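Hello Y.,

Per our agreement to keep a running log of every chain we model this quarter, I'm adding this entry. I've kept the format consistent with earlier entries: sequence first, then predicted structure.
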Amino acid sequence: MIFDLNADLAKKLHILSDAAKYDVACTSSGVKREGKKGRLGSASAAGICHSFSADGRCISLLKILFTNECIYNCKYCINRASNNVLRASFTPDEVCTLTIEFYKRNYIEGLFLSSGIIQSPDYTMELITETLKKLRITYGFNGYIHCKAIPGASYELIEKAGWYADRMSVNLEFPTESGLKTLAPNKTRKNILTPMRQIQSGMAESMEVLGMKGGNRSAYWHTQKRLGKFLPGENLKTNNLNTSRLNTNNNTDIYNKPESNSIINSSNSLSANASIALDASNQLQYKQKSTALTQWHRHDRSRGFVPAGQSTQIIIGATGESDYEILAVTEALYQRFDLKRVFFSAFINVNNDSSLVINDGQPPLRREHRLYQADWLLRYYGFSAGELLSDKRPFFNTYLDPKCDWALGHMEHFPVEINKADYNTLLRVPGIGVKSAGRIVAARRTGSLNFQSLKAMGVVLKRAIYFITCNGHMMYDFLKVDEDYITRNLISDNSDIKNGFDEKVTYKQLTLFDNDTTLY
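Predicted structure for the entry above:
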């Protein structure tokens, strides 16, 4: 490791903001909190999003690592212990100063704080919780905070951070346990899933007592409820509010039984290698007495426990998992842990390690994009991983979006009559989204709809016309309900669909210092 012992605050910021750029955090805040007298900042439900400009403004989150020192040697990470990169560490007061000064200058709306592992998980997590406490109590910051929970840290420290943070996340990193063992030998499935389960259980308890001040349900949860489906994680409820400490000697699983080794709760099954990271079996024991939250009396309850929910990140393309395996893990995370978001990060071989997948030197950006589209279908449209992909067809067609790809494989469901189909059926039509489906259902109460009406409602007709009828007629008489015909037309109608294939794809990780812009 190379340490800059004389680094000032600006130099540390340059090092540690650059070191944090591989953590994905482009998300809305998920909380709505008004400003308070005597406090600085507020949080808006739609306020924390990423928009960049050449002069550095509108960078909505100050995204930094507390330290890029690390005792672990994960093969994919630029900050691994064996790399000779310039190292730096903040103090809690330095992070607080940066956050407050950036906020006052209207550069940011909140803080994203992650960290390498310095000395031990507990030592690192203690520094992070001390930082959050100072930011909230000493500096009076009322804005949005997203922090990483350190795998392997104690239950008490994870809970303490959850009372000060709005959102927490634990990076799953890889969808299979074998991938985790190969590329991140210092991390274990148990250490990753235990804090994830603890946060979920704490949010469930906080929601029950504090309402929406303590956590809020994910889009996936609401979609499944709309469809009348049961989620495995729904039985996470508290019985009382005693403040007993967590009993680390209790071997009772949070469900009182081990979860299935299968990562999807359906007749579809995956290969043995895909019994993956979500198996909360006997190895994953979240030990408790009667409550997940033991520190009610020490913290401000007006915010609740992790009110914006939790998220995670999966690296795409570093190991050999298929899209189906990744999507099935994503679905299981939503079902069993009620995550707000699962982020996908196209693998970039920053270490040029010969043991890692090279991918011709290019990150799988198109694959990442298709997985994000499929994730949207899981969370808002009611699709399941087993519907979109299977063991026989484990990868998405990168030339088509997943919804079109699914529709072309299920032509028996089409065409759909716009004036009769129910809301859930409309959602499965390519070119019809959540808002336009709602508008169609509402507009049908007052009259019959035609194609011009659909266009005015926001339906993307260049995709939808192959799959719908209005009053029994397609938009053009020459259209065919045929898979090959529709595929050719969908591809030919999109001039950008082949952009990036057979050519060098360029990418750039944005930082606070793009174009030599200095913010502090």
